[in-house]
Design goal:
The chain has about 270 residues and is mainly α. The protein is globular and about 55 Å long. The longest helix is centred in the middle third of the chain and has 34 residues, at about 125-160. Helix 4 (about 65-90) runs antiparallel to helix 5 (about 95-110) and helix 4 (about 65-90) packs antiparallel against helix 10. Helices cover about 75% and strands about 5% of the residues. A two-stranded antiparallel sheet has the order 1-2. It has two domains: about 1-115; about 120-270, no CATH class.
Length: about 270
């Protein structure tokens, strides 16, 4: 009882949140779209509440962050965009895959809660983190729409119904809007790290050519090539989706991958 009473509130919320996501994954796609929207809204709201308590916990002036919280916030932002789109496009169905991802990242963040980052170290640190996480969320939303677009294209070729709920051209337009917005925020994140690296992390941890920097810059170049190819050469379909997937993988390796190696493989608290 003593151990249970000492558990942080966000860990108490993790179990019902993961269970609600799992329930949504099981029955959400089988019910009417309106009911599926309501089902997804419940774990999404619990997830957001848990993130508030997890990131801004009892340590005043600090937030807990790491590879798992980064993935959890990214997934929640992606689901936020999807929940909003379900309001604007009622025919958009609840996907069991997205709810399953939500359940997985909630459990992962509960197991690996990250370490404390002291916000008073620099007034720019909250902005830097917010820009970075927002760019992750937008790019992930673009990946979801690209995946839906691929399913729709495959179903059209086979003469079947993909049950996506949106026209193919609408999915394509939304995909590139998310990519463009994510690219702008990623650019701002990298610029902030370069310009204010000393005040963000100290002189010894300022801008340096480590794995995080290299992968992040490679992802930026990949997204830039995708947007240029789209506007100059008309890239679309499978070619554009593949470039998007490569850029997203590089972006995930840049922060989440690097932090995973440091926290889990090497056991360092950073």
């Amino acid at each position: 009882m003593i151990l249970a009473s000492n558990l942080p509130l966000h860990l108490w919320l993790s179990l019902p949140t993961a269970a609600a996501y799992a329930l949504t994954a099981l029955i959400g796609p089988r019910v009417a779209p309106a009911m599926g929207h309501r089902l997804l809204a419940v774990p999404w709201a619990l997830h957001g509440l848990g993130l508030v308590f997890a990131l801004f916990g009892p340590q005043e002036g600090a937030v807990r962050f790491g590879f798992a919280p980064a993935l959890s916030v990214t997934a929640w932002l992606m689901l936020t965009f999807y929940v909003l789109e379900q309001h604007w496009f009622p025919q958009l169905r609840t996907r069991w895959t997205l709810a399953s991802v939500g359940a997985a990242v909630v459990v992962l963040a509960a197991v690996f809660p990250g370490s404390a980052l002291h916000m008073e170290a620099s007034p720019w640190l909250p902005l830097h983190l917010a820009l970075g996480v927002a760019s992750y969320g937008l790019i992930t939303a673009a990946v979801v729409h690209a995946w839906l677009m691929t399913r729709a294209e495959q179903s059209m070729r086979q003469g079947a119904d993909a049950h996506v709920g949106l026209p193919l051209l609408t999915l394509e337009r939304l995909t590139f809007r998310f990519v463009s917005a994510g690219f702008v925020l990623l650019t701002a994140t990298l610029a902030a790290g370069w310009l204010f690296g000393d005040s963000l992390y100290g002189a010894q941890a300022a801008w340096r050519w480590d794995h995080k920097t290299v992968f992040s810059l490679l992802s930026w170049c990949t997204f830039a090539a995708l947007l240029v190819g789209r506007h100059r050469f008309g890239w679309r379909g499978r070619k554009a989706v593949r470039v998007l997937y490569v850029g997203t993988l590089l972006l995930l390796l840049g922060y989440a991958g690097s932090r995973f190696v440091l926290e889990v493989v090497l056991g360092r608290v950073v």
